[in-house]
Amino acid sequence: MDYQIIPVTSFAQNCSLIWCPVTLQAAVVDPGGDAEKIRAAVAESGVNVTQILLTHGHLDHVGAATDLATFYGVPVVGPHRADAFWLDSLSVQSQLFGLSDCTPVQPDRWLEEGDTVQLGETTLEILHCPGHTPGHIVFFDRTDRLLVSGDVIFNGGVGRTDFPQGSHTDLIAAIKHKLLPLGDNVTFLPGHGPMSTLGRERISNPFLQ
Q1: CA atoms of 114 and 7, how far apart (whole Å)
Q2: Which terminus of the chain is less hemmed in, N or C, by CB atoms within 10 Å?
Q3: pLDDT given for residue 61 in this prediction
C-alpha cells in the first residue's frame, strides 16, 4: 500500500491518502478539514478515491468527510458505532473550538473488530482500539506491515483519554494486547506527529513501560 500524509487544520492532523499501487484505488483517511488541500493532493497523485475512512469521531478527524464524500460520490466507512455520539455532536464540537459549523457525518458503514476493508488488491484489517474514544478503530495492512493508527498511539505518546467515555486503561490495553503483538516491524501513520514503528514504541514510549 502506498500513502501520502496531508497535514490539515490548526490541529496539524495527519489526513492520510492511501492507495493500492496496482489499481490506484484510494481512500482518504480522517479528513479533518481543508477539503480543497486534500482534493489538490488527490488530483496531483493521480489516484481514484473510492471511499472515505474514519478512525474515530472527533472533529479534527472528520471535519471534511461529508464534503469529500459528496465531491467524489463515495461512501464514508467507519468508525465503530460506539462513536456515533461524537459524530452526532459535531456542531457542538465546532462551537467549543470556535470553528465554523461542521457538516454532519453519517457513515454508510460502521466497522467492527475483525471486519476488513478492500482497497483494490489491498486488504485492510480492522481492530477496535477504544480508549481515546469508545469507537476508535485502526486500519492494518498486514502484507505491507503498515498501520493507520489514528489517535491511539503516537511517536513517543498515546492518545488523550480525558474526553467523554475515554479510558486510559482501555487505551493501554488495546495498544499492548492488539497493536504491539502485530510485530516490531510494523510502521504506523499516527493522527498527529511523525511516523514510527511499533518496535520503537514498545521499547521507548514512556506510556508503555
Answers
A1: 29
A2: C
A3: 95
Low-confidence stretches of the chain (pLDDT < 70) are 98-100
Query: DSSP assignment, residue 182?
Result: G
Level-2 CATH architecture, domain 2-208: 4-Layer Sandwich (3.60)
| Contact between 124 and 139 (Cβ < 8 Å) | yes
What amino acid occupies position 196? Answer: S
137 vs 148: CA distance, rounded Å: 9
Cell of 18: 492511501
- Alpha-carbon distance of 183 to 195, in angstroms, equals 16
Question: What is the amino acid identity at position 47?
Answer: V
At 184 the pLDDT is 98
User: What residue ranges do the domains of the chain occupy?
Assistant: 2-208
Residue 102 has a pLDDT of 83
